[in-house]
Design goal:
The protein has 474 residues and is α/β, with parallel strands linked by helices. It folds into 4 domains: 2-112, GMP Synthetase, Chain A, domain 3; 133-301, 3-Layer(aba) Sandwich (Rossmann fold), CATH 3.40.50; 306-376, Helicase, Ruva Protein, domain 3 (Orthogonal Bundle); 383-472, Chromosomal Replication Initiator Protein Dnaa, Chain: A, CATH 1.10.1750. The chain is 52% helix and 11% strand. The chain has 20 helices and 9 strands. The strands form 2 sheets. A 5-stranded parallel sheet has the order 6-7-8-5-9, sandwiched between helices. Strands 1-2-3-4 form a 4-stranded mixed sheet. The structure holds adenosine-5'-diphosphate and magnesium ion. Adenosine-5'-diphosphate (ADP) binds at residues 145-147, 152, 179, 181-187, 312, 340-341, 344.
Length: 474
């Protein structure tokens, strides 16, 4: 029996040898060990998941024809992938079966999926230059679906310039996109990747979250694959690292990323990095890394204004094919003001109610859903909202507060709004200043001090502040 499988595989190899390049033959076919022939099912052992994938992707037709010729018309192929089991003196290996890809029709027998996949060394790239790497992009996150507004104009424009390789865009390397959660950092960074793939299909683009990068790196360290890990990342043309603040406190990961960053940057490869804070406010990251983040362009994404929120909603509704009245859209846009994720969530609930429960979408229904949403997500109070409450309290239009007017009572209201923005949100001084009257961070700092001083010295003033605070927390 064992002889038979060896014999048959030997004959297969002779055919294969005549049909592939020498180097590929040596790299991919020679190391294969035939292990079983059960009826017309041939099981071969391959040295790594990478080899398995490479065979499936590039040689499946050849393999299919060959085994059908040698075994019979119903011949099927099964793989057994060797895994390094580093816990036992680095030598031992475990074997397991991996299913053939369904569309290949070579192996469609249900077999168990890899259990210890993390032990596979995914970074070894033996002997081939052009490697297909799945860029890990989600086509939903395209530029077409990314609504432009004042809140994201610079970041979007820079991203688009990179993706279309406009002159001078090499100045945006790295492109550092920062902003609060749910405001579109992942979406925009993916859009850039998608657009690059569209315009330059030959480029190797890779999107990876900082978290995933870190896990891969930790695994690589454990398995003694540090160099393979680095080599893998160094062949990428466009590397997108999402949520880089997650590297905070992780020194090993920062070191290895530093090395990869330098290599890519020196070779003129593009880096796109996202973070919840600008480089100057990031903590737990090494200075040398932060200073590199500042080499290119740092562009922020802010909370979208009302008009942009309406546009985003309309775009999403249009894609869903359902109609909503202007009144309902505006209701949602004016009540969900902190993140785009919330806007989207409320809309999805609304659409679900209407399609699943066959409820008509009325303003009443929209109110219920928005209400629930606001409560469930315990939203962070937005600066827009603070300005609105403060203005309502002093009975003045929000425009005046946002203007440059230096009238005493307006200056004071503005200072109060800044004070609440500092104490009740996570926004930076700079971001607060730019949203309230276009002031700089020093003005915001001064305002907070003034309000604190008055709180200690002026009882009537304290009364105002307490009342406003109550309204804000309502
Ligand atoms: P972040 O990564 O900053 O936390 P995401 O990119 O995940 O935020 O965005 C949250 C949701 O909001 C996503 O579903 C995204 O598609 C959507 N979104 C964000 N910005 C925009 C925009 N400008 N236009 C349309 N949709 C957006
Ligand atoms: Mg994100």
């Amino acid at each position: 029996m064992a002889d038979k499988v060896i014999d048959i595989w030997g004959r297969c190899l002779r055919i294969i040898r005549d049909n592939v390049h020498d180097a590929s033959y040596k790299t991919f076919f020679e190391p294969i060990i035939p292990i079983d022939l059960n009826g017309q099912i041939l099981t071969i052992q391959v040295p790594s998941a990478f080899v398995y994938e490479h065979l499936e992707e590039n040689y499946i037709d050849l393999l299919r024809k060959t085994i059908r010729k040698e075994i019979g018309p119903d011949a099927k192929l099964e793989y057994s992938v060797v895994m390094q089991n580093e816990s036992v003196n680095g030598q031992e290996s475990v074997t397991m079966k991996m299913p053939g890809k369904e569309n290949t029709k070579v192996s469609n027998k249900p077999v168990s999926l890899p259990i210890e996949k993390k032990n596979i060394n995914p970074f070894i790239i033996p002997g081939i230059k052009k490697l297909h790497i799945d860029p890990q992009l989600n086509e939903i996150y395209s530029f077409e679906n990314f609504i432009e507004g004042e809140c994201n104009r610079l970041a979007r424009a820079a991203g688009y310039a990179i993706a279309t390789n406009q002159a001078g865009s090499s100045a945006f390397n790295p492109l550092f996109i920062y902003g609060g959660s749910g405001l579109g950092k992942t979406h925009l960074s993916q859009a850039i990747g998608i657009e690059i793939k569209k315009n330059f299909p030959e480029k190797t683009v890779l999107y990876v979250t900082a978290h995933k990068f870190q896990t891969q790196y930790t695994d690589a360290e454990l398995n003694g694959n540090r160099n393979d890990f680095i080599n893998f990342y160094q062949i990428i043309d466009v590397l997108i690292i999402d949520d880089v603040h997650e590297f905070a406190g992780k020194e090993g990961t920062q070191n290895v990323f530093f090395q990869i960053f330098n290599h890519l940057h020196q070779s003129g490869k593009q880096l796109i990095i996202t973070s919840d804070k600008p480089p100057i406010e990031m903590q737990g990251l090494e200075q040398r890394l932060l200073s590199r983040f500042k080499w290119g362009l740092a562009a922020d994404i802010q909370i979208p204004d009302f008009e942009t929120r309406v546009k985003i909603l309309k775009h999403k509704i249009y894609n869903s094919g359902i109609e909503l009245s202007e009144e309902i859209i505006e209701y949602i846009a004016s009540h969900l003001t902190t993140t785009i994720r919330d806007l989207e969530g409320a809309m999805v609930s609304l659409l679900a109610q209407s399609t699943l429960n066959k409820k008509e979408i009325t303003l009443e229904l929209a109110k219920q859903i928005v209400d629930k949403f606001v409560k469930n997500t315990k939203r962070e109070i937005s600066i827009d909202y603070i300005q609105k409450v403060v203005c309502d309290y002093f009975d003045m239009p929000v425009d005046v507060l946002k203007s440059k007017t230096r009238k005493r009572e307006i200056v004071q209201a503005r200072q109060i709004a800044m004070y609440f923005a500092k104490t009740m949100t996570k926004s930076s001084l700079t971001s607060i200043g730019s949203q309230i009257g276009g002031k700089d961070h020093a003005t915001v700092l001064h305002s907070c001090k003034t309000v604190n001083n008055l709180l200690e010295t002026d009882k009537r003033f304290k009364l105002y502040i307490d009342e406003i605070e109550k309204k804000l927390k309502l």
